[in-house]
Amino acid sequence: MSEHTLAVSDSSFDKDVLKASGLVLVDFWAEWCGPCKMIGPALEEIGKEFAGKVTVAKVNIDDNPETPNAYQVRSIPTLMLVRDGKVVDKKVGALPKSQLKAWVEGAL
Length: 108
What we know:
This protein has helices at residues 13-18, 34-49, 66-70, 97-107, and strands at 6-7, 23-29, 54-60, 78-83, 86-92. The protein has a five-stranded mixed beta sheet. Helices cover 35% and strands 27% of the residues. The chain has one domain (3-100): Glutaredoxin, CATH 3.40.30. It is built from four helices and five strands; from the N terminus they run E-H-E-H-E-H-E-E-H. By secondary structure, it is of the alpha/beta class. One of its GO terms (cellular component) is cytosol. This is Thioredoxin. Residues 1-108 form the Thioredoxin domain. It comes from Acetobacter pasteurianus NBRC 3278.
């Protein structure tokens, strides 16, 4: 992770995502996932561009199996937008940065 993304675990998901203020973009990913690696840099940039407005949280599904199971994540990357503890939107698959940015802007 970097200064613009937050590594989230099963044990920290409640505090870091559900109780966070503002919008949280959750990225369910894994080291072995090619499409996850493709969108990683775009998510970093979104985290930087929307600093203070959006938190980009990354959940490694191999290290943290409970949270993806609870949210029925069946394929990765799965991206969720969470506000006030509720999932407001969800996307599955790799998208170009322009589409990811527009998706986030639409939720702000």
